[in-house]
Amino acid sequence: MNKFKYKKSIILGGSKGIGRSVTKALKKTSKKIISLSSKDLDLSNSYSVKQFLKTHNNTDILFLNSGGPPNLKFEEITNDIWIRYFKQLFLSYCEILRKLKINKGGYIFYISSSIIKEPEENLIISSSLRIGFSSVLKSLSKKYAKNNVSIINIAPGPFKTQRVKELIKNISEYEKKLPLKKLGNPDEIGKFVKFIIDNKIRYITGSTVYFDGGISKSL
Ligand SMILES: NC(=O)c1ccc[n+]([C@@H]2O[C@H](COP(=O)([O-])OP(=O)(O)OC[C@H]3O[C@@H](n4cnc5c(N)ncnc54)[C@H](OP(=O)(O)O)[C@@H]3O)[C@@H](O)[C@H]2O)c1
Questions:
Q1: How many angstroms is it from 72 CA to the middle of ligand 1?
Q2: Distance of alpha carbon 4 from alpha carbon 62, whole angstroms
Q3: Quick check: CB of 123 below 6 Å from ligand 1?
Q4: Using H for helix, E for strand and C for coil, what is the string for the chain?
Q5: Is residue 129 within 6 Å of ligand 1 at its C-beta?
Q6: Is residue 164 part of a domain?
Q7: What is the rounded average pLDDT for all residues in the chain?
Q8: Is residue 217 part of a domain?
Q9: For residue 184, which atom of ligand 1 is closest to its CA?
Q10: 120 falls in which pLDDT band (50, 70, 90)?
């Protein structure tokens, strides 16, 4: 008997942080796991995306994830910076979805950010591009549903990864101000993804799940 529930998973940005936790969590669920770093697939580089799509034309699970953009003031963001992150956090995902078939019964997960609900002046590249791509996924969720493919947008708050260490200087002081007094553990996102696909949870497709440790002030 086949002990794996799924044949193939592709995890973009799978070498560190949240992506690595998801890679770890799916070991017993997916027979083949393609977990990629920026060296395997650079989402800011159109050629790299094309090469990736020559090798892969279908998957059961797709985890859309990448490195986050720098925290720059609006005035500091040049057109070149905008274009680079537009490719990395928006256009490449669109091209991948256009060309990569998600097999019947599959799942697409997307790592956005809790700031899509409450954008601020800092992290403006991140919030604007992720709001845009969240809208793309929402629009596509009904079409994918016809093929029994579910889409879940995961919007994390502060999680303990390399990314956060780069953005926050004094982590222990920052943690004191958080409702749960600590950063999130990326393994919780791995466990969440595994739970959804192992149990074939279907009815939250097209939804955004805020994984923010209670920091959001909105409903
Ligand atoms: N951690 C948080 O608190 C938090 C909160 C909200 C949103 N997010 C967002 O969630 C995503 C993952 O965060 P994380 O904390 O896990 O980040 P991380 O620890 O920095 O890991 C980023 C992953 O993305 C890969 N990557 C970087 N640049 C890439 C590129 N140009 N093309 C393809 N892959 C690339 C990295 O590969 P390499 O190993 O090659 O570097 C790595 O596997 C980011 O977009 C981040 O902004 C994170």
A1: 17
A2: 16
A3: no
A4: CCCCCEEEEEECCCCCHHHHHHHHHCCCCEEEEEECCCCCCCCCCHHHHHHHHHHCCEEEEEEECCCCCCCCCHHHCCHHHHHHHHHHHHHHHHHHHHHCEEEEEEEEEEECCHHHCCCCCCCHHHHHHHHHHHHHHHHHHHHHHCCCCEEEEEEECCECCHHHHHHCCCHHHHHHCCCCCCCECHHHHHHHHHHHHHCCCCCCCCEEEEECCCCCCCC
A5: no
A6: yes
A7: 96
A8: no
A9: 3
A10: confident
Residue 121's pLDDT band (cuts 50, 70, 90):
confident
Q: Is residue 1 part of a domain?
A: no
- Domain coverage including residue 93: 6-211
Ligand 1 centroid – CA 2 distance (Å)? 33
State the total domains in the chain. Answer: 1
Q: Does 96 fall in a domain?
A: yes
Contact 20, 186 (CB under 8 A): yes
CATH number where 195 lies = 3.40.50.720
Q: How far is the CA of 20 from the centre of ligand 1 (A)?
A: 10
C-beta separation of 157 from 114 below 8 A: yes
The pLDDT of 29-51, averaged and rounded, is 98
Examine the pLDDT at 186 and tell me if it is beyond 60: yes
